[in-house]
Design brief:
Layout: H1 47-57, H2 59-72, E1 89-99, H3 116-130, E2 150-154, E3 167-171, H4 182-188, E4 197-202, E5 210-212, E6 234-238, H5 258-267, E7 310-313, E8 316-319, H6 339-351, H7 353-365, E9 373-377, E10 388-394, E11 399-406, E12 412-421, E13 424-429, E14 436-443, E15 448-455
Bound molecules: zinc ion (ZN).
Zinc ion (ZN) is lined by residues 45, 47, 262, 266, 272.
Length: 457
């Protein structure tokens, strides 16, 4: 079988513009940013070669990918058209730290057994980026910028139902794992990928800093069973690029936690913005990521900065969206997922069996209660949340909801309804800029609860 990962490293030293004849071979992860930056790794995302490896090992997987791209281009039935925010989708995360430090010490310079604080900083970055949080590096003012509205949470329960921190630590005599050794990592530790996003943090052999597995579409009409990859369904990140500027997160220009944002984008079904075709020869056709609102690009941004780059695709000159998380830009340049990318992600979460099961499982993780219970958080609302508050609504079974927001003078200022739902976390944006106390009434057909929320000055 083809072994894409056996291609020698650093073959294409800074000559990526000449790779058009290789379009489709997906070898873009091999070249360094610039020759002088020998100590600076490239984005080195391995997802495409790894995906090719999976496809070559399993023909059904290849068929699944084709179907995935077709299905994901269809409109999403659940998309809101009234401007209201969609349900926050919870993704429970388990971070498996696989290291070769036998001392048992966590944290500290060069220690692959990274600290809890380093891990928590990564979760924070993910939520900023996937929720387009105001006053954070994940915010943007682009008209096509989207709040994907996914909340990543370190798991509270392990697969056996015991309380956990969502972090596991495993000593291995191996100092690093190559990009074809995903199975070995899964042999060391794996939690069911239909209930958790597994993130393995280890030292990756060579210049790569992360890779991920695309979602599979088993069970969709016309698609044969695609098995055998469940145990490796997750994301692998080099420990020197995991988290934000803390602990061992010191490698190159990828120190702001966006390697994980990018790789989880693949895990959620997104492709690179340039469609994995580097194209600059006359007559060459640009690649596509199947997203309408990310401009077609001839090549990734593999510089050490955030330059203005332009592409001419189909005769049209457009600016490359180098700030997109699915480009190869340095971390500090990145701040956007588009509405089209959000639609694709949320469609994956509806259609891909394991992703769908994971979301359902997380929903069910919220307890069922005999009587309606409502809790608002954060409360008081934080300035960085842009007047947004989350309502944890616990109830019995599934019920339709009405949510009414009143000002402190009793004026009804906002009202929304939710179709029949089990316990959920519902984001509500307070409609007035005015600071003060708000009353939020949540009603089912047979009971209601009022909770107070403070919007500080
Ligand atoms: Zn990538």
């Amino acid at each position: 079988m083809p072994k894409t990962a056996t291609v020698p490293l650093n073959v294409f030293t800074s000559r990526f513009r000449n790779l058009c004849s290789l379009s489709g071979l997906l070898l873009l992860w091999l070249w360094p940013v610039v020759p002088a930056a020998a100590q600076t790794p490239t984005r080195g995302c391995l997802v495409n070669p790894y995906d090719s490896l999976l496809q070559s090992r399993n023909p059904n997987y290849a068929r699944g990918r084709v179907l995935l791209d077709r299905l994901l281009r269809e409109p999403r039935s659940s998309a809101r058209t009234d401007g209201t925010e969609e349900e926050t989708l919870i993704i429970p995360v388990v971070v498996h730290v696989v290291h070769n430090n036998s001392s048992g010490q966590t944290g500290g310079a060069t220690n692959p057994n990274i600290s809890d604080a380093q891990i928590r900083s990564q979760i924070e970055v993910l939520n900023e980026d996937y929720q387009r949080k105001i006053n954070t590096p994940g915010f943007n003012t682009s008209p096509v910028g989207a709040n994907v509205n996914i909340e990543f949470r370190l798991a509270i329960y392990d697969p056996q139902g015991n309380l956990t921190t969502g972090i596991t630590r495993h000593y291995s005599s191996r100092s690093s794992f190559s990009t074809t050794e995903m199975n070995r990592l899964a042999d060391i530790v794996y939690w069911p990928s239909n209930r958790y996003l597994n993130i393995w943090v280890t030292r990756i052999t060579g210049d790569f800093i992360g890779y991920a597995q695309f979602p599979d579409m088993t069970g969709q009409p016309g698609l044969a069973e695609v098995n055998g990859i469940e145990r490796t369904d997750g994301v692998i990140i080099d420990y020197r690029n995991f988290g934000r500027n803390i602990g061992t997160t010191t490698q190159g220009v990828y120190t702001q936690g966006r390697t994980t944002t990018h790789e989880i984008g693949h895990w959620l079904g997104l492709l690179h913005t340039w469609g994995d075709v580097v194209c600059d020869a006359p007559g060459c056709s640009c690649g596509t990521d199947f997203i309408n609102d990310t401009p077609a690009a001839q090549f990734p941004n593999e510089t050490l900065g955030c330059p203005e780059l332009f592409s001419v695709c189909g005769g049209v000159r457009t600016r490359n969206m180098i700030e997109n998380y699915m480009d190869y830009s340095p971390d500090r340049c990145m701040n956007i997922f588009t509405q089209g990318q959000k639609d694709r992600i949320r469609r994956v979460l509806e259609l891909s069996p394991r992703r769908k099961a994971l979301i359902e499982s997380a929903r069910q993780a919220l307890p069922e209660t005999d009587n309606l219970r409502v809790r608002a958080f954060p409360n008081p609302v934080r300035p960085q949340d842009n007047r947004r508050v989350n309502l944890e609504i616990l109830l019995k079974g599934s019920k339709p909801l009405r949510v009414a927001v009143f000002s402190s003078t009793g004026q009804l200022v906002e009202e929304l309804s939710v179709n029949s739902t089990p316990s959920l976390i519902l984001p509500v944006t307070l409609p007035l800029q005015k600071a003060g106390l708000y009353l939020i009434r949540v009603s089912t057909p047979d009971e209601s609860q009022v909770t107070k929320v403070l919007l500080p000055e």
